[in-house]
Structures are given as C-alpha cells and as structure tokens.
C-alpha cells in the first residue's frame, strides 16, 4: 500500500482508504495475514494495473477488488512459507493485527502511520547483480538450498557450496552473490561460494592495508614453504617467513593454526603471501637493542649454534645473533666449521666487536684458549731443522704447520736453488710431510719463515770450477724471452743465451724460431757472475765466425746470384749463398724494364756495402744494368770520335793527292760516310 493511499495531501489518512481496508480484510483476512510475501510479490503487478491510484483516490475500491480477486489463487503452502520468512525477517510484525485496526476505527495515530510506512518501504528491496547480500534459507534438500533475499523470486544454490557447514538449517542467514537476477528460465541465480570468496578477498585486502594480525590454518607443505588457509583463500607462507631462525622441518607446522601478517598481494594472479616471522621481528628488534646495549668487548657469553656456513658459525645469544668467523673458531687451520662445532650445540664465546647501528656482533671461540705459540719450544732458534705438514699452498709459497696453530711460511724462492719462474704447486701438495730450516723467527709477532732448499748443498758453490769460461756443455731450454733463451745447466744453475749469440749468419726475431722449450742445446760459457748468480752462454761460439770468410767472398762490386725472400717498406731481403742474407733498398731493385721483382725471383745482385762488425751486406740489382748501359754509351762515344777522326784525315789526303788518285779517295770517303750512317 503506497504512501498516497494512507495519507491525503495534508498528511492525514484518506477516508476512502480507511473505510475500504476493513472490507478487504473482512473478505480475505486469512489470506492477507498468512501471505505477507504475496503482497510483496504481487505489488509490482498491482501498481502496474492501477497507475491512477495516486492521482484518483476514489478508485481505491476497484484496486482493492483486484487484490481480493488475485489473493485466493495463492497456494496455501507457499503462503505459510512466505509468512514464516516474512515474520523472521520482520519480527516486529508479530504485533500487527487487522482486528485491532478495525477496532481503532477510521483513524491511525501518527506513530502507527510512520511505523507502517517504514515496514511497507522495507518490503521493497533493491537487488543488483554482482552484489553480495544476506539471504535467509527457506528450504534444504540433498541437491540444493533455496534462499530468499527479498526479491520477487527465491534463488537456488548448489548444496556443494555449503557442504562445509553441515549444521545449516532453515531460517539461517547466509551471504550470497547475485550472479543474475533472471536467467533464461526466469530463475534468480545466486552463489554462496563467490560471496565467500569476494568477502574473503575484501577481508584480506583490509588486513593488508591495516597491517592486521590474522589467523590462518596451515593446510599442507609445498616447495619452498607452506600453504595456509586464510578466510577461505589459499595463501603462501615462504620457509624464510616462518620464523626468524632457519626451519629444517616444515612438517611440524602442518594442520596447525598460526597468526600471520599479509605481506604481499598480487591481484593479477590472485596470490597472497603471508608471514609469521614479521610478527616477532618487531619484538626481536627491541630485544636485540636491549641485549646489544648491555654488551662489552671481551665479555664471555653462552650461546647456541644456530647455523653453520662455509665461512663461519651463527650463534644465538638469546634473542640476538652473532657470527664466529672460521678463522676465530680454532687456532689451527680448519677446512669447514663442522670440524669444530655442531648444530644446536651450546658453546662459550667471547665478544670481539659489535656494531649497535647494524646490530652485528663478532664473536670468537679460540680466544678462550691459550695461544699455541706459547707452547712453542723456547730453545728453537734460527737455523734449526724442524718437521711439519703442508696445510695451505698458494702460488707464492706454502704454509707449514709445526704445531696446531703454529705455522711458518715456506716461500717459493726457498723451495729450490733454481732461479727460473715456478710456483709452489710444482714442489709440494697439501698434506705433505717436509723437513725445513728456520730462516727467521719472531715470537712477538708470531711469525716464522722457513726454507727447504737449504737442506741440500748450494750448487753455486765452486761454480767457476764446474763451469769455466769457454767450456762447452749441454743445457735444457726452460723459458723464452724477447732477448734470449733461459737454459738450465743443473738444478739451481741457470744461464742465459742472448738472441745475438744464437747464430752467426741467420737473423732471428724470436728465440722460438730457433729451438723449443725442453729441447737440449749446446752452449759455451762466456761469462760467470758469482755475486748475482748469472751465467752468460753462447751457441754460435761453437763454430768459427764465418764473416771472416764472407769478407773475402762478398767484396765491394762483386756480383752474386740471390733470391728475393721478403719485402718491407724500405726494401727487400735477399738470400745469398752460404746461408747469409743481404738487403737491397727499393731504389736498387728496379729492373731494366722499369718493373719491380717478385718474391722467390732469382736475380743478380752487386755488393755495394759490406760490414763485418754489423754483419750487414747491402745489395743492388739496378747497379748491374745501369753500369752496363753506361759502359755501352762510353764505347759508342769513343767509336764516334774515332770515325770522325778518320774522315777528317781522309779529307786532308784528298786535297793533297793527284788527279789520278782522287777518284779512289773519293770512293773511299763515300764508303766511310755510308758506314757511319
């Protein structure tokens, strides 16, 4: 019944409405009282059929007749069901009675009008799709649950969506999600599962925004952590976020309820990450600050081994962690901290240093024990022989352990009398037992240097007697440099062959062109430097100097056959007989036909310069044909002069001869001129 039907324009009840209502009630009292839902369902149809009600109050009687005609067609079971739902939704209507209204006459009090108007307005419930609202269960069977949401029809939900709640009964209120107000068959489509999921996501987002502490149920273990049920959503709990200390067994948390904080939400992939560790970090930070404030260097505490790594051990000091570096676990050398401590072991430690800002604590365990250098033999002196074990090897040397925690350095230079470059790995390996000599000893600094080559005689003793100058020996090639070859005469005695002492005649750019590492080579001792332990050796000195002979063969202006073997910017390298080489500048290589020579071409060359000291021969090919051309020109000029002289003499003779001889001389002159032409 609309507001216009109850009041006139001045706010008072309409007489016609008051007079007509008892008649309708008298005609169908039972139907109206038992089917409040029918009014709700049929009200849109009634209003649609009586659009003039608001403008024409006098037609209320005809409208009431329509309602009276339609109400008897409602089935009684549906009416009873609707009555129960309506009464459960609006318990205040229990006080409503049509009899009491008849007794009151034709007038309502202001309070009653306001009350009935409110009840009437509440009967018009707006329902939107994709909305979560509260509904009332009106029917339950094995397959579906019927829910009333105050709409024109009830909605049906699959019983599987409510199987988590076996105690659900008719009259209970549940949240539902409106998927469709009316499908193809006219059915209202609802979903309890989607409503729970949507509400769960809203709750999770709220917890994340407000940093709330929530409770979740650990369902199972997964790779890298645990799966937690939070408000019906599966969230991920990383193993690193379970506790502040490393967790080795995740299974102990399965099927347990724990408190968490939502630390991350990925809305795109619908992922939620929670943390239990975050709940206790704030408390631990406060505990750490309090504990660190009481710490002092040198303080001895008891702690528990929390974690072991390759570089050290983390110790739990009762709310704050400290680190014992591997070098502070034992005075002796250890490969891994597990050789000294075990997980969950309680040990005493000493505080070496701490940083209040970074909350880092450096601990030590070996400092609680006497230093092993204090147990070193007080009579040990430089020059004494001792035995030890190789514990560490580097390129520069090896550390020898004489006692646990007492080590000395055996430098690579003290391993052998040899001077050429080598590493400690060539002599020793970890675990070797060696006998060495103490070279230096500093008890205050706790440092010691050792020597191994001192255990054998020095090969440089009496070196001049073993390797006199000009003596010939066979050595082994050990290393190359740009300036020569290092060879080993014996263990500890090395020598150098300069590149200029490798060959008399062949020009060598690098020693690798001449020999190979590891090959034997014959040498001659050129010089012995005992103080600096150096031997100067030569190889070409094994033969006589061929340049004494070359000086007589390759004389200036002598011509020899040669082969072009290479070329550079300045000229050509020419291979000459006897295995030597000469050089010809570009200007001296031009052929007579103005062309340049080719590689491997055999040509004649003239020696234009020879230097025995520099072992240098300068050649020229152009000189040969240029000089030949000059010689020809000189011969031609001399012949021309001779002919001109003969003609001149003949002319003089003609002038002096008689007439009879003139013809003969004239013929001779003509012959000379023809031959000249």
The helix count comes to 14
- How many structural domains can be distinguished in the coordinates? 8
Supply Rg. Answer: 60 Å
Q: Could you report the average pLDDT, rounded to the nearest whole number?
A: 76
Shape, please? elongated
N- and C-termini, Cα separation: 155 Å
Taking strands numbered 1, 2, ... along the chain, how are they ordered across the largest sheet?
A: 1-2-3-5-4
Residue share in helices? 25-40%
Main sheet characteristics: 5 strands, mixed, barrel
Low-confidence stretches: 1-79, 89-94
The tally of beta strands, per DSSP, is 30
What is the SS-derived class? Answer: alpha+beta
Strand content: 25-35%
How would you name the oligomeric state of the polypeptide chains in this document? single chain
Task: Outline the structure in words.
This protein has 677 residues and is of the alpha+beta class. The chain folds into eight domains: 3-122, no CATH class; 132-196, Nucleic acid-binding proteins (OB fold (Dihydrolipoamide Acetyltransferase, E2P)); 211-280, OB fold (Dihydrolipoamide Acetyltransferase, E2P) (Beta Barrel), CATH 2.40.50.140; 295-368, OB fold (Dihydrolipoamide Acetyltransferase, E2P), CATH 2.40.50; 372-455, OB fold (Dihydrolipoamide Acetyltransferase, E2P), CATH 2.40.50; 463-542, OB fold (Dihydrolipoamide Acetyltransferase, E2P) (Beta Barrel); 547-620, Beta Barrel (OB fold (Dihydrolipoamide Acetyltransferase, E2P)), CATH 2.40.50.140; 628-676. Helix content is 27%, strand content 31%.
């Amino acid at each position: 019944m609309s507001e216009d039907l109850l009041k006139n324009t001045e706010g008072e009840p309409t007489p016609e409405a008051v007079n007509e209502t008892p008649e309708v009630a008298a005609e169908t009292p039972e139907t109206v009282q038992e089917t409040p839902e029918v009014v709700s369902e049929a009200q849109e149809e009634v209003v649609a059929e009586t659009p003039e009600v608001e403008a024409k109050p006098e037609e209320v009687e005809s409208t009431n007749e329509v309602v009276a005609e339609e109400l008897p067609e409602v089935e009684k079971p549906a009416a009873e069901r609707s009555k129960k739902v309506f009464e459960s939704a609006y318990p205040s209507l229990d006080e409503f009675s049509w009899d009491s209204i008849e007794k009151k006459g034709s007038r309502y009090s202001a309070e009653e009008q306001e009350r009935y108007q409110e009840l009437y307005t509440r009967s018009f419930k707006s329902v939107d799709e994709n909305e979560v609202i509260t509904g009332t269960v009106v029917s339950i069977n094995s397959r579906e649950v019927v829910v009333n949401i105050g709409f024109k029809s009830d909605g049906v939900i699959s019983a599987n969506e409510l199987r988590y709640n076996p105690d659900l009964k008719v009259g209970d209120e549940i949240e539902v999600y409106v998927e469709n107000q009316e499908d193809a068959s006219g059915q209202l489509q609802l979903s309890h599962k989607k409503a729970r999921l949507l509400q769960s996501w809203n709750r999770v987002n709220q917890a994340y925004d407000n940093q709330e502490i929530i409770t979740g149920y650990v369902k199972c273990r997964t790779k890298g952590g645990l799966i937690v049920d939070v408000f019906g959503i599966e969230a991920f709990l990383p193993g690193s976020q379970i506790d502040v200390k490393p967790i080795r067994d995740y299974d102990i948390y399965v099927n347990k309820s724990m408190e968490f904080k939502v630390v991350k939400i990925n809305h795109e992939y619908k992922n939620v990450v929670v943390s239990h560790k975050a709940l206790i970090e704030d408390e631990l930070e406060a505990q750490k600050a309090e504990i660190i404030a009481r710490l002092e260097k040198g303080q001895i505490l008891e702690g528990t081994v929390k974690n072991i790594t390759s570089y050290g051990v983390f110790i739990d000091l009762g709310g704050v962690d400290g680190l014992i570096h591997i070098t502070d676990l034992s005075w002796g050398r250890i490969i891994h901290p597990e050789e000294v401590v075990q997980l969950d072991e309680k040990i005493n430690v000493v505080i070496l240093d701490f940083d209040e800002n970074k909350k880092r604590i450096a601990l030590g365990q070996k400092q609680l024990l006497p230093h092993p250098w204090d147990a070193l033999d007080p009579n040990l002196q430089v020059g004494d022989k001792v035995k030890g074990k190789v514990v560490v090897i580097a390129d520069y040397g090896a550390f020898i352990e004489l006692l646990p925690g007492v080590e000395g350095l055996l430098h690579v230079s003290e391993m052998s009398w040899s001077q050429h470059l080598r590493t400690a790995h060539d002599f020793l390996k970890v675990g070797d037992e060696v006998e060495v000599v103490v070279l230096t000893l500093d008890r205050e600094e706790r440092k010691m240097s050792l020597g191994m080559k001192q255990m054998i005689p020095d090969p440089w003793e009496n070196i001049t007697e073993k390797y006199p100058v000009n003596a010939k020996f066979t050595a082994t090639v050990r290393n190359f440099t740009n300036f020569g070859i290092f060879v080993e005469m014996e263990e500890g005695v090395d020598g150098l062959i300069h590149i200029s002492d490798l060959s008399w005649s062949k020009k060598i750019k690098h020693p690798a062109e001449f020999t190979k590492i590891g090959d034997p080579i014959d040498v001659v001792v050129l010089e012995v430097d005992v103080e600096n332990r150096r031997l100067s050796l030569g190889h070409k000195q094994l033969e006589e100097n061929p340049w004494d002979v070359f000086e007589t063969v390759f004389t200036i202006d002598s011509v020899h056959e040669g082969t072009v073997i290479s070329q550079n910017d300045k000229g050509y390298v020419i291979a000459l007989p006897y295995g030597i080489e000469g050089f010809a500048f570009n200007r001296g290589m031009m052929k007579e036909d103005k062309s340049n020579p080719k590689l491997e071409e055999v040509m004649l060359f003239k020696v234009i310069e020879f230097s025995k000291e520099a072992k240098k021969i300068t050649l020229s090919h152009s000189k040969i044909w240029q000089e030949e051309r000059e010689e020809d020109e000189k011969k031609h000029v001399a012949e021309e002069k001779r002919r001109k002289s003969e003609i001149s003499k003949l002319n003089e003779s003609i002038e002096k001869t008689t007439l009879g001889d003139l013809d003969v001389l004239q013929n001779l002159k003509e012959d000379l001129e023809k031959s000249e032409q």
